[in-house]
Amino acid sequence: MSSPSRPVTQLDKSDVLAGLFATWDALDGLMTGLTEEQWQTPTPLPGWCVHDVVAHIIGTESVLLGLAPPDADIDVSTLAHVRNDVGVMNECWVRHLSAESGSDLYRRFRTVTDDRRKRLADMPDDEWNALTATPVGPDSYGRFMRVRVFDCWMHEHDIRDALGAPASEAELVSPASGLALDEMATSMGYVVGKLGKAPGGSRVAIELTGPLARTIRVAVDGRAQVVDDFGGREPTATIRLDGLLFTRLAGGRVDSVPVELSGDEQVGTRIVEHLNFVM
């Protein structure tokens, strides 16, 4: 594999695994005792019910265990909600596991994630930090696992939305949520500069409120980049919204959320219109 154009991300293995295992535990708790009717409840993801979301997670972790994706019974690329090759693979697993009862799927989830926990816990540091193919381009295996935290955490909340079981504040402030937001923050330079077309010299502060409170700062100096601070200068545009709603908007789960804008509202509005960036 060729070297990436950016530095390889080095992440603490114990921190990332704590987040990944925490969201698997949360998913396990949500699945416990579901009726077959609840397994078929539609989620915010087009074409997918709770059963489908869990099948997708099982499929991805199965591939990471070395299993080949199953063949589909139809050309899944023609489905309206399938947009790319990753979507094709996901749909193959969803259709492959669609005949399983909810209780059987739950047992499969436990078996697959138990196996993954063991393999990840035993993984040497040099393998954890090694360059590999990831959904965000060549990077460390550890970065790939942070992407897995993000994906599983987002799907936890898809299932919560479907079942009418929102997370309590204590459940929301978890090791997984911080890592999921860390992963999302890495894309904000692209969202602000490329999609939102913030002009040179812009300093954009995305202020997340509520239990997931944090501020993501993006400075546009030639190219837009996430920065720790603006060097004592005030933001030229501020976007303020609830942290959980930010993740739902960015993931395309909702079309709009309440947002407060200040400073250059034209730039702020354009960025908000392009916050739905997750493929």
UniProtKB/TrEMBL annotation:
Pfam families: MDMPI_C, MDMPI_N. GO terms for molecular function: metal ion binding. Residues 22-160 form the Mycothiol-dependent maleylpyruvate isomerase metal-binding domain. This is Mycothiol-dependent maleylpyruvate isomerase metal-binding domain-containing protein. Residues 179-267 form the MDMPI C-terminal domain. It comes from Mycobacterium fragae. InterPro entries: DinB/YfiT-like (IPR034660), Maleyloyr_isom (IPR017517), MDMPI_C-term_domain (IPR010872), MDMPI_metal-binding (IPR024344). It comes from the Bacteria.
